[in-house]
Known about the structure:
Elements: E1 4-9, H1 18-31, E2 39-45, H2 47-58, E3 66-70, E4 81-88, H3 89-98, H4 103-118, H5 126-141
Parallel strand pairs: 1-2, 2-4
Antiparallel strand pairs: 3-4
Helix pairs in contact: 1-4, 1-5, 3-4, 4-5
Amino acid sequence: xSVRVFVRxxxxxxxxxxxxxxxxxxxxxxxxxxxxxxxLSIVFINDKRMRKLNRLYTGRDDTTDxxxxxxxxxxxTQEPLLGEVFVNAQLACERASRVRxxxxxxxxxxxxxxxxxxKGYDDHTPQKRRIMWRKTRKILSRFGYEV
Length: 147
């Protein structure tokens, strides 16, 4: 599978290791190669932007850790685009100390979770949540991150 990963950083709370983010994104996409989509957009944002997106697209007037939007059926791009994942880096920094995790590890957790949603996984039942959690832990452990 040939994958192009585009990463944008629109926040100032966390230094984003771009090569690591791309590597983890590719690894996550390859865990479940359900299709041959070749592009993924990842955007690291702050709490204010995440709240606006959440309100606009889900109707909830609060923040969240990650939002993933599938763009598989979009005609706006020339190449197949799996989707766009928005990661709340500010929230990752705030939650990290509470869960005894690094801010980077917390943000990467959100990233993997969002990509798995794009690949068709959901966490609406306890069993499905466990499956997603196991996949997330397995992927991050390959890069030396324990969550």
